[in-house]
Automatic annotation (TrEMBL):
SUPFAM superfamilies: MFS general substrate transporter. Keywords: Membrane, Transmembrane, Transmembrane helix. Gene3D superfamilies: MFS general substrate transporter like domains. It comes from Granulicella arctica. The chain crosses the membrane at residues 35-54, 61-80, 158-181, 216-233, 253-272, 279-299, 305-332, 339-358, 378-397. It comes from the Bacteria. This is PAT family beta-lactamase induction signal transducer AmpG.
Length: 405
């Protein structure tokens, strides 16, 4: 069930590597390629605003399927129109937005069946949520790596029309498993049984109540804080020259090696979840990762250090986000009429610290008061993350005690 999230990874994987290569082959400038790539990835930050649509009228299975199909068509059109930048940009932006919406609909759908699956297998929802979360992220990572490899070869060896159709079909393929994923036991309560205006009226009432829930607000705060962002993963590639690492070495590290390492590390979460619940585990991962970042200051600036730092930071980020999705499943629970909306809101909150911490890390590297360079970037990134973990641990520790009072 989790591997069906590969649609999201496949579209994202195309934007990250094959798209720049394809545009460069068309003679597009580096500056323009960067602008197009950023625009195509932008739905990852704002598409959560459309999350409430996934809880209106139709089932989440229907939305996940339709948007997966739209993602495949959008990517196919982008490849076919690669000589028309504006059309390509619109098509690929639509494809990525559709992939995110499909993933969010799938997340809301899966959250509702976690308790049922746990009961059927005589397990507990916390562990099953961690296991399902791990496999959704494995699907995303493998989809990313698969597309990065297949798209480049397909565009080089096959006629353009054939390559476009095959890549579009590949994006839709993970949705083929949807008919075999069970619906929640209480599926008769889903919005698909209501009229459109009844669904919208109920949605507005439920959304207002959702935004007032203390548990939801605390979870958003947990994700917005830099507790598990590991934004350094996006910065190390740009400063690889300080480690005397070649471009080819960096590309190899960022390709299949990173995809396989990320996918493998996600599978550690269900094992760890046997002993530690998702929320304290998320903070524990953030704490260990922050201490590792701070320890990088004592290592020499060599290609080996770059490889260790790059892989470790990415592994920690993969584990952190997998734990975050498990927390989302636990927070959503069973029979939640706004499951997809809540999943969209919470997962989008995890993106925000990656953005602002990237800016902070960049400022630290170029000169932040008396701290600068790699040492300054390590100190600021690791120090702020560690402080955030300590503060949020104190807040979360007080929450059950306050509730009992």
């Amino acid at each position: 069930m989790g591997l069906s999230n590969a649609t999201f990874g496949l579209v994202g994987g195309f934007i990250v590597l094959p798209l720049p290569q394809m545009l460069a082959a068309e003679g597009v400038s580096e500056a323009r390629i960067a602008a197009v790539s950023a625009a195509c990835l932008s739905p990852g930050f704002w598409v959560f605003l459309l999350g409430p649509l996934l809880d209106v009228r139709f089932s989440r299975r229907w939305y996940a399927s339709v948007f997966a199909g739209l993602a495949g068509v959008g990517l196919m059109m982008a490849v076919l129109m690669r000589g028309h930048l504006l059309v390509l940009e619109i098509a690929l932006m639509t494809a990525y937005a559709a992939a995110v919406l499909s993933s969010n609909a799938l997340g809301g759908w899966l959250a509702g069946i976690v308790p049922d699956v746990a009961e059927t297998e005589h397990d507990n929802p916390s562990h099953k949520g961690a296991s399902l979360s791990a496999w959704t992220q494995v699907g995303s990572y493998l989809g990313n790596g698969l597309m990065a490899g297949l798209a480049a070869e397909g565009l080089r060896l096959l006629p353009l029309n054939v390559a476009a159709v095959l890549l579009g079909a590949l994006v839709v393929l993970p949705a083929a498993v949807f008919p075999w994923i069970p619906q929640p036991v209480a599926s008769e309560k889903e919005p698909s049984q209501q009229r459109v205006w009844e669904s919208l009226a109920g949605l507005l009432r439920e959304l207002k109540a959702l935004l007032k829930k203390r548990e939801v607000l605390l979870t958003v705060l947990l994700f917005v804080a830099p507790t598990g962002a590991f934004a350094l993963t996006n910065q190390l590639g740009g400063v690889a020259r300080e480690f005397h690492a070649s471009d080819a070495f960096v590309s190899r590290m960022g390709g299949a090696v990173l995809s396989l390492a990320g996918a493998a590390s996600c599978l550690l979460l269900p094992v760890l979840a046997r002993w530690v619940k998702a929320l304290p585990l998320y903070l524990l991962i953030g704490t260990v990762g922050s201490l590792f970042t701070l320890s990088l200051q004592v290592l020499p600036k060599t290609p080996t250090t770059f490889a260790v730092a790059f892989l470790a930071e990415n592994v920690m980020q993969a584990l952190s986000f997998t734990a975050a999705v498990a927390i989302c499943f636990a927070t959503i629970g069973r029979d939640n009429p706004l499951a997809a909306t809540q999943f969209s809101l919470l997962t989008s909150a995890t993106v925000l610290p990656i953005l602002y911490m990237a800016v902070v890390d960049g400022r630290a590297y170029s000169g932040f008061h008396s701290i600068r360079g790699l040492g300054g970037m390590y100190a600021i990134d690791g120090g702020l993350s560690l402080a955030a973990c300590c503060v949020m641990a104190a807040v979360m520790w007080r929450r059950p005690r306050a509730h009992k009072k």
